[in-house]
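Throughout our pipeline, every protein is held as a single compact record rather than as scattered files. Such a record has a labelled line for the sequence and another for the backbone structure tokens. The remainder of this section carries one protein's record, kept here as part of the documentation:
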Amino acid sequence: MPKDLRSFMAALDQMNPAGLLRVQRPVSRDLELTAVLRRLQEDGQYPAVLFENVQDSEIPVISNVLANPESLALALDSTPDQMLWEYIAREDHRIPHRVVQNAPVQDVVITGQDIDLNRIPICFNCEKDSGRFITAGVTVVRDPDSGAHNAGIYRLMILSPNELGMSYEKHTHIGHIHRKYEPKGEALPTAVFVGHHPACMLGSQSKLPFGTDEYDTMGGLLGEPLDVVKCRTIDLMVPAYAEIVFEGYTLPEVRKPEGPFGEFTWYYGLERYSPVFHVTAITYRNDAIFQHLFAAHPEHNYTGKLGRESILYKRVKSVVPTVRDVRMPMSGICRFTAYVQIAKEYDGEGKIAALAALASDPFVKLAIVVDEDVNVNSDSEVLWAVATRTQPDLATFFVQNSAVSRLDPAAYSIWNRVEKDTMNTKWAIDATKPIEAPFEDRADVPREMWESLNLSDYIAGW
């Protein structure tokens, strides 16, 4: 059988039974479900959790699917220390999607007056959220010029039994495609699929150039073709082995308020007037599982991590071939901070790498460049390099009035710094040692003496 959410759950359970927990007692979708996840987070635990009995719904909910590095690596059949390189290799080896005629995701088809979004266990996540939001839904549209499928994850708030408010950033590909339809007064055919193998979610976060068919990117990350089937009410293809699909149209020139909503920044994204997605059908598997993503939580950060690290590495490498590694650390919510490790060859190269990192993604707000002896997986190592290798007035520079995510709680308007919008000052720190000037050596034991040392040879019972 093709890979899907169920095959991943089985692999997760097999790898580590404690990595997939089951909650059998009745749980409310409104705050109680996320309260369980928040309690686990407070205890430093991030297992996937299957809520088998969600009140007022016959459909169970799974959450925390990608809330830790081990699960993220498992999605790519890899390990945490190799998953970035596996992601890059698979992203660059795309596999064309495959059209099928029959699909489990269309076992049940609901249309017309029978559509009621509240029948699906869509959750209320944080105290000040404005309503229930689909959070793990992958929104799919097709570029009318190239025909390529474009996918992304955007918050979707229930506005009515058949309407969702959809929030996307100005610079996104879906925004570009929607703007091709709106001037003509045409609705954009749109589908949202929920619940599939997490490689598909990772594929939706790819930062490859516009016009790349992201179903083919998902196939590359899956390691096999993504099976797709034609929607029942719109001219669009959706994954055949998804759990649930919402079909419909993003309306032209219609905006309605949605938000606030607890976001990946772990702050509330403010209310905004957002496009409206009119639902024309809901289809799902006979025994569907609804996938939930707690947005103000590490799972949201990890889900977008590898796609951003991939494009960060590729874009820095295009101008600084000596780049060795990159990281979007959790301390920067896997979005706003970039660590870049280089094998420095000449003075000034660190600043070139930093400029490339800042330009790699509008979300990157701070770039720190370090030497190859500094571990970019360690915040403390990177900050040690900042503390000991920089003359701050020379090593730090700023780029004012840059475009950033409007979900950055410190972002401002072009008109003033009080009004919220999509501008901020980006900054960078070159924490590399000079090449042509003397600098102290790092104090350490020779690596070959400790790296492969077996402590059980020295410490009884280790």
